[in-house]
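Methods: holo model generation. Sequences were used as deposited, without trimming of termini or removal of tags, and paired with ligand SMILES retrieved from the corresponding compound records. Each pair was processed once, and we did not select among multiple samples. The sequence and flavin mononucleotide SMILES for this entry were:
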Amino acid sequence: MQPYHLIYLSQWMEPMGAAALEVLLHQSRTYNRQHDITGVLLHTPEGRFLQVLEGPRAAVRHLYYHAILSDPRHHHCRVLGEGPWPTRSFATWTMGFRHAQAGDLRTLLGEATGDSLGLTPRPYPRPQLLGLVLDFVEQDRIPTWQEQ
Ligand SMILES: Cc1cc2nc3c(=O)[nH]c(=O)nc-3n(C[C@H](O)[C@H](O)[C@H](O)COP(=O)(O)O)c2cc1C
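and the model returned the structure below.
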């Protein structure tokens, strides 16, 4: 069965400091490990999130549509793409984390979509965006918060 991918953008409601982000990551990694979900979360100083979720279709969709989407810590959630794709891009990460700058996201999304910030949901597959996120993450060899 091909892993299912879902990529979305969102914006925090209130500024989240390092401690709050660490709690979020710890909870996410525990849940994701139990449900065979992997992925990465990018976060900018302005509070924008870009997350890639990958794993069994039902698990990924349940997590996003029944938990993440209604999480009061963020809003303006917009799915950039979702669907099956042959391989996981972040297979060893229950939830990787990277700081990013707003310009990084603009570059990633601009390159992937050819328009400004790519805020319109688009059909999957979006291998180009997945590949760009993977390249971005791999450039930074020292993660801010290592996987446990
Ligand atoms: C930006 C963001 C990303 C999140 N990513 C995950 C995740 O990958 N896995 C996860 O279990 N929860 C994640 N959460 C937390 C969920 O939204 C939710 O709080 C969690 O699943 C607990 O839900 P519950 O309180 O209904 O049990 C994320 C929340 C935010 C704000």
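Residues 4-139 form a domain with the Alpha-Beta Plaits fold (CATH 3.30.70.100).
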